[in-house]
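Question: Hello, beginner here. Any chance you could explain the protein record under this note? Any guidance would be welcome.
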Amino acid sequence: MQEPFKQRTRKRGRKNERGAALVMVVLITGLLLIAVSALLLEASAHTGNVTDATSEMQAYYAAESGIQTVVNVLRRNTILPDPLRIDPTKPATDPANQIDYFKAVKLSTSNLTGDTSPVPRLSRWMTYDATYTDRVILGNAALYTPRNGLAYKVTIENPDNVGGNVAYSTTGYINTSGTTQMTFPGTLLSDSATIRYVPSPFVSVDVSSGIANNIDFGKFVISYVGNGATIPRTRFAINVNFTDPYVATKVIRGYIEAGTIGPTSTAWILYDSPVSVVIGSTVTMSPLPGCSAPQCGVYDPTPPDLLPLPWNYYRIGYKITPMYPPGPIALADTRVIASITAPEPIRLVIRSTGYGPQGAVKELETVVQKNYFNGLGAPSPLTLIGPPCTPVGSCVPTIPPVDPLPPAMIFNPGTSTGTIYSGKDVNLKAFLPPVGLTDDLNLNRVNYAVNHGPPNRYNGQVWGVVSNIRDELPPWLQSPRKLDNTLQLLKASAIASGKYYGPGVTPPSPGGGRYGDFATATGITYIDGPLSFSQEGGGILIVTDTLTFQGGFSFNGLIVVTGPGGIRRTGGGQGSLQGNMIVAPYNAAGLTCLANNTTCFLAPEYDIGGGGGSEIVYNSNNVANGLGALTNFIKGVAEK
């Protein structure tokens, strides 16, 4: 009787456990659901993060694209079509319609006419979108939307505020360095005439409008006693020493024409060049305000007027009579008047904002420098740097007509009638000294060589005035150490472009653009040894040993020779250089020279007496292109 009761009791207890499995399943399922939901949420969030990261990376690349586009424009790879030209009367290749750093930061030339943007953004040179007017679209503009497209916008800044002011002072001399006054005796003991140069003190000029007129570079004070005097042609030089925005010196050279100074004065003041270019500014000499022909004017003979030596050169410039207005005893002060344009910046700040999908935005900022040389090339088509003989202090320079021997300065300009040295710029009405020296004894040597070479009246044809250009040397040519630092940069650039040929390596054979591009005057070739050259070339050519021109040759750009053997010429044919050729020899001993001292170089050698004719002509455009071997380089990129 008891057993059935126990069984009934046990069965009744298990009956209470019904549904427990379901509860467990529900609990476990809930936990799994939570876990899966969390996993899905995490995956979704991760996917979103990946999508955002991709969008941000695309925005970054879009911003980088904007920087590269600006650099491409600055390298003049963008030609303005007819409707967009700054000066529609001139072709697209004219400098007026080509980009430079000044045009890039000036609203009227950087942006299109009618562009209301308050900042320069190169809308004249880059195609901004018609719908989304603040940006340049990458890809198909018709399919662009801010949610799924790529675009960028740029702004250009002038970090140094270049172009607002120019500051300078002047120094000068008449006939001899250091002499600011000369008195000439007349027929009677009581007669004389005096010319005195009075420099200009420190002056700051506002050029924010683009140009400043009637700026003062000092004055000539011309007076006479009694009947005055007859004066010979007398050279003068005025050093314009710029301190703002850059430190540089430009020498304004000229002469006081032979004639009388007195009651019936016939003397004139004439500048070697009506135009000079310095620190990116164009300096144009001007006549006295109110002065007109026949007292003032421009004398521009074609062909050039070869005057009695050593003054044979283009007589182009503004002539100003010291008798204007006339005076009975003390003639009126003759001011040295000029206009100057705003200088070009040497660096720019580019801000580029990139737009990617999903509203991603990235902003990059970089500084772009014009070129390593800052536009400062050599001051003469043929520049010979160094002392009259080396080692300095233990050698005695020879005096013409005694022929020098190495290691003294050697200059043989060639006797061919087809040999021409011209300081006339092919592109501008500017005249440089055709041959520039850094020592007065070398200057005498060159003048003697060009004036006394049989069988002609002089050796070759020299158009311009051979001058001492030591005061005008750019920083990179002021000492062997500075030149060597520059050459190391050029060497690295040549290595990177496969144009470096080390010691013992045979230089490339002619043809195929192996020495740069002749047509565009671009490229860089570094020959670490001697070179025999008889082909076309362009850009920059560095030769660390003797450079020998053989037969015919043509080069557009800058040639720098640093070997003690300098430049030689063999064979016939006609050679042509349009640009700069610099002979600046040095050795390891010169690198220990810390001062800006050109006597640390070796004596330069230039001898083309063993060859045919050649033409060395200044071409500012070729020089600019040549100096651009290290051009528009980016000095780092920062993400903002």
Observations:
- The longest strand covers residues 211-225.
- The longest helix spans residues 20-74.
- The chain has three domains: 53-161+345-371, 165-341, 382-393+406-503+520-632.
- Residues 300-314, 322-330 have pLDDT under 50 and may be disordered.
